[in-house]
Amino acid sequence: MEVTRILKILKKRWPNPGAMEIGNPYQNLVGVMLSARTRDEQVLKLMPAFFRAFPTVEKLAQATTKQIENKINTIGMYRQKAKNLKKMAGQVMRGNDGKVPKTMKKLVELAGVGRKTASVVLVASFDTPAIAVDTHVHRVTNRLGWVKTKTPQNTEEVLLKLVPDQDKHTINQVFVKHGRYICISKPRCWACPVRDLCAFQKKNFEAPKNAQAILDDIDRREKVLEELRRQAIG
Ligand code: SF4
Fold first, then answer.
1. Which residue owns the Cα nearest ligand 1 atom 4?
2. How many domains does the chain have?
3. Which member of 40, 81, 134, 167 is catalytic?
4. Is residue 224 a contact partner of residue 41, using CB atoms and an 8 Å limit?
């Protein structure tokens, strides 16, 4: 099947796990919540100190919003995120015996948790087939011709039917990286390993003069990200 084939090729190109595939469900959930509209690098950098201060969901629930703010004030929307984290931790302690829920229905009831966040947690922490669709996944799958959709929500609905269960966990991992580095707004089809399988009409095969420097920089950024992810896991 073409979907499986393309994912296999992209998995070879982007072998590292997603940046927020870290540690246990609690750490995973916090990481994804913090990463909303924030660069993964910034979130990964603050994680070791964050989890030293709040090693469990119980400790997070006991902290004041101010204490949480102080640990995340290097990232955007930190006040709102601190509020959500505190509320989420309280909900998990009260309603779920201190354990991060394992179902979409229960996850999206938590403060600050939407379907995208919930899907990442389901896939990364509970090995449950789900698809987290962000702008990268939405753009790349439209260009490939897998979906013809206007919104990430529609894309998620179509992909959930289209992609075999065993491949669902790969979607977010490879398309986020592919969308960030190669299938950018002016796509770098000249460097794309799935260009022969892609339906996009306006492919860009013109490699710039500094093509090699661009590719080297992508590899460097991926290495930095993976190192930060490992440090975050501890
Ligand atoms: S060929 Fe171009 S448009 Fe298609 S997935 Fe690759 S980079 Fe994106």
1. 198
2. 2
3. 134
4. yes
Residue 42 sits in which domain range?
Answer: 25-126
- Indicate if 45 belongs to the active site: no
pLDDT of the chain along its 234 residues, tens only?
Answer: 699 999 999 999 999 988 888 779 999 999 999 999 899 999 999 999 999 999 999 999 999 999 999 999 999 999 999 999 999 999 999 988 899 999 999 999 999 999 999 999 999 999 999 999 999 999 999 999 999 999 999 999 999 999 999 999 999 889 999 999 999 999 999 999 999 999 999 999 999 999 999 999 999 999 999 999 988 877
Please name the residue that has the structure tokens 């998620």. 156
Please give the single-letter amino acid code of residue 69.
E
Distances (CA, A) of 128 to 103, 139, 216: 9, 24, 35
Nearest CA to ligand 1 atom 8: 183
Atom of ligand 1 nearest to the CA of 203: 2
| pTM given for the model | 0.91
CATH code for the domain in which residue 221 is found: 1.10.1670.10
